[in-house]
Design goal:
The protein is of the alpha/beta class. The chain has a single domain, classed as Alanine racemase (TIM Barrel). The chain is 44% helix and 16% strand. It starts with a helix and ends with a helix. The relative contact order is 0.15.
Length: 241
């Protein structure tokens, strides 16, 4: 069942208010933090309601759903009458296998989950064929959980340095996922560690001026993530429930 525009608007105001409060605690301007709405659990009508409220950065965690959603939404918007909605910017926020790289590049503008040189080289090769340059974030397993994807903390700086040399990638930042918990404070060490790695890489001038994003924080812990320096939040249930 679609989530109404008024419900999403109410939730969006709450999220933005919480972000502003977290920014105030951290001495940061709220405009430094952007939202990616993770739409994997909602239908197309709900996404259209979201777009009408000006949220145009959308994220999916599965390749097939990303491509299907993009095609469905494009077809619906092409049939739409009246004032056109702003263009959608798709984010691939889930684990990506090398054999799915071409599909993702054809749809997504940003890939948050690059965690190996082999995957990065595949993306680079496919992007060259498509005459594109792709924005990517390197995923780091800062929680050091075995079930989580991401490059290890110890290998992160060396891999980031290699990624920054690939001509058809633009390394724009780092991504991590905190432990799934109802206690947001338990996520703080994970986010703080990613920020430390980010600062180390900035000192080494990895990525240059493009390297400026920390994608961390989801519905259950985004306030803590903002306090620790997040610039991109991946928000799902907090917008739609």
């Amino acid at each position: 069942m679609p989530v109404s525009r008024s419900k999403i608007e109410q939730n969006l105001k709450r999220v933005r208010s919480n972000v502003a409060e977290a920014c105030a605690r951290a001495g940061r301007p709220p405009q430094d933090v952007s939202l990616v709405a993770v739409t994997k659990s909602v239908d197309l009508e709900t996404i259209l309601n979201l777009l009408e409220l000006g949220v145009t950065d959308l994220g999916e965690s599965r390749v097939q759903q990303l491509t299907d959603r993009s095609e469905e939404l494009t077809a619906r918007l092409d049939r739409r009458r009246g004032t056109p909605l702003p263009q959608v910017r798709w984010h691939m926020v889930g684990h990506l296998q090398r054999n799915k790289a071409k599909q993702v590049i054809e749809t997504a503008q940003v890939i948050h989950s690059v965690d190996s040189l082999r995957l990065a080289e595949e993306i680079d090769s496919r992007a060259e064929q498509l005459e594109r340059r792709v924005d990517v974030l390197m995923q780091v397993n800062c929680s050091q959980e075995r079930q989580k994807f991401g490059v290890t903390v110890g290998a992160a700086l060396a891999l980031a340095d290699l990624l920054s040399t690939l001509r058809n990638l633009r390394l724009v930042g780092l991504m991590t996922m905190a432990p799934l918990t109802e206690a947001p404070e338990r996520a703080r060490p994970t986010f703080a560690l990613l920020r430390e790695l980010f600062d180390d890489m900035r000192r080494e001038k990895i990525g240059g001026a493009d390297f400026r994003h920390l994608s961390m924080g989801m519905s259950q812990d985004y306030g803590v993530a903002v306090e620790e320096g997040a610039t991109i939040l991946r928000i799902g249930s907090a917008l739609f429930e």
